[in-house]
Amino acid sequence: MKVILLSHTPEPERLVASAARMSVSCNTADGAYSEFTGDKIEKRVSSVLSDGDLSFLEHISYSFSVEGLSENALSDLALFGCKISRQRIKSLRTIDPADFVIPERIVEDESLLESFKAAASSAAQLYEKLLRNGISADDASYALPMALPVNLLITMTAGSMLKFFSEKCCKKTPWELRSLAWKMLRAALKESPAIFRTAGPECFSSGRCPWSDIKCFAKMKRVWSDDLTDK
């Protein structure tokens, strides 16, 4: 899976700081925006995150290009209120069975892998047959395998992203969405460190494990120094 941060609201941290400042002062949005520079921005954003009022984060958004997410994972992603545009599938003839998104446990078992590919290929062939017989692409898509890779443009507000990272960066999350969440977080962190420095699974952001899994909680302490969560 390939994830690229394409764009985001200009000066997102400054905008968040300005919104928070304006809410408790007599200053206009323009005046609050003008007064914030440097360290003042980071301090105000940290205060917003500490207070837990994430409404100010709804003023900013981030757009990602995602290549190779499965249809199966896409259904869960839509629950986070993000805007999703997907590449229209006109034909599966150019998709090799090896391109299907396949869980590692299945890949490791040769007999199961062959059965999996055969089933996915059969579903893809049915989709093509339906199209050839005049069935619309929308109706034919019901035959598509859930392992089909899709390419997306995803846009989320910063507030929704924090919620998404809190839930989906967790080791208890299915591997594919967990990998997506970490890749999105690392990309966003480079652009807006003040906003996303404490983002991540709930154990990292709040200091407690919602699953009371002490062993897993200890492993997550090393999360910024290795790539275990992307597997």
Q: Can you give a write-up of this model?
A:
This protein has 231 residues and is of the alpha+beta class. The chain has helices spanning 12-22, 29-35, 38-51, 71-77, 104-107, 110-132, 137-140, 158-168, 175-191, 193-196, 202-205, 214-220; strands at residues 2-8, 61-70, 83-86, 149-157. Helix content is 49%, strand content 13%. Strands 1-2-4-3 form a 4-stranded antiparallel sheet. α1 packs across α2 and α8 (158-168) crosses α9.
List descriptors.
231 residues, alpha+beta, four-stranded antiparallel β-sheet, 4 strands, elongated, disordered C terminus
Produce the secondary structure layout:
Elements: E1 2-8, H1 12-22, H2 29-35, H3 38-51, E2 61-70, H4 71-77, E3 83-86, H5 104-107, H6 110-132, H7 137-140, E4 149-157, H8 158-168, H9 175-191, H10 193-196, H11 202-205, H12 214-220
Antiparallel strand pairs: 1-2, 2-4, 3-4
Helix pairs in contact: 1-2, 1-3, 8-9
Mean pLDDT: 85
SSE string, helices as H and strands as E: EHHHEHEHHHEHHHHH
State the helical fraction: 40-55%
Largest sheet properties: 4 strands, antiparallel
Distance between the termini: 11 Å
